[in-house]
Design goal:
This protein is of the alpha/beta class. The protein has a single domain, classed as 4-Layer Sandwich (Metallo-beta-lactamase, Chain A). Helix content is about 30%, strand content about 20%. The protein is built from nine helices and twelve strands. The strands form two sheets. It has a seven-stranded mixed β-sheet. The protein has a five-stranded mixed β-sheet with strand order 8-9-10-11-12. A hairpin with an 8-residue loop joins strand 2 and strand 3. Helix 8 (about 235-250) runs antiparallel to helix 9 (about 270-290). It starts with a helix and ends with a helix.
């Protein structure tokens, strides 16, 4: 490793210019990565991971997640898109639901992440290994997925970095820009950056069409202002409020949230507005306690 570091150092000197001295330092020991199939234990994990029968939400879109953690399958003639992966132990439930619907995990081409906490990203590495799919996330989300833990500026960074709550790092994460679309077959999946709950939070939208009738679907990331003790949302309140407004103004015939109980029933044209309104009220309450 030290020899490799010296090679990188020489390359940097050549690129930047001569006359520079480069000191080689041994890196700090990184946390031992969690295996992709290692279950995560938490107070809510067992209930969140209870099996739930798959459900057709709209034309080509199916709920394939667990009872408490959403995961969606969007089918296309060119392969499928999967949104979120639940816990590591959710992989088996998600895979079984996909197969029960008559589709195959091996045909998943894209896995899109909402935010990189263990309960939504914990199963992504395992699902990537099973499918060989491309994983996509926001810029900050990609950093956290690659590390297998939240970034320093995450409101839940301290608790999320506890060894018991780290998740398996995800290989080869592609960054998707705010407003950028991922095209697969006849589906255009659009990323909307909605930071607040995490720095990399992303809400995803697409159209689901059948027999000439289309619906605008929204996979809404968490807008909850919750954190570890000592974190203050005050400094980032404007950005968080903007994220809430983004969700409020999205075309929204059907909304599914990352925890399904936040958005039952799914088909409700007013769901995005109601979700955003409730989140704004919670943010105001949280900011009031920080004064």
């Amino acid at each position: 490793m030290e020899g490799l570091s010296r090679q990188v150092c020489v390359i940097l000197v050549v690129l930047i210019g001569g006359g520079l001295a480069c000191a080689v330092r041994r890196p700090h020991a990184a946390p031992v990565p969690r295996p992709a199939d290692a279950a995560i234990r938490c107070d809510n994990c067992e209930d969140w991971n209870l099996p739930r029968a798959p459900l057709n939400i709209s034309a080509n879109t199916y709920y394939v997640g667990t009872d408490g953690l959403s995961s969606l399958l969007i089918t296309t003639p060119a392969g499928h898109i999967l949104l979120d992966g639940g816990l590591p132990q959710s992989v088996a439930v998600i895979a079984a639901n996909i197969e029960q619907l008559g589709f195959h995990v091996a045909d998943v081409r894209v896995i899109a992440s909402s935010h990189a906490h263990f309960d939504h990203a914990g199963g992504i590495a395992g699902l990537q290994q099973r499918s060989g799919a491309r994983v996509v996330a926001s810029a900050r989300g990609a950093v956290a997925l690659a590390a297998g833990q939240p970034t320093d500026d995450d409101p839940q960074a301290r608790s999320g970095r506890e060894p018991a709550l780290r998740f398996a790092p995800v290989a080869h994460v592609d960054v998707v820009g705010d407003g950028e679309a991922i095209q697969l077959g006849d589906v255009s999946l659009v990323a909307h950056y909605t930071p607040g709950h995490t720095p990399g939070s992303t809400t995803w939208t697409w159209r689901s069409c059948e027999a000439g009738t289309c619906q605008d679907l929204v996979y809404a990331d968490s807008l909850n202002a919750v954190s570890d003790d000592g974190f203050r949302f005050t400094g980032g309140a404007a950005a968080f409020q903007h994220s809430i407004e983004v969700v409020d103004h999205l075309p929204c015939d059907v909304m599914i949230s990352v925890h399904p109980d936040f958005s039952r029933p799914f088909a409700d044209p007013g769901a995005c507005h109601a979700y955003a309104t409730a989140a704004a009220a919670k943010l105001r309450q949280r900011l009031a306690t920080e004064q």
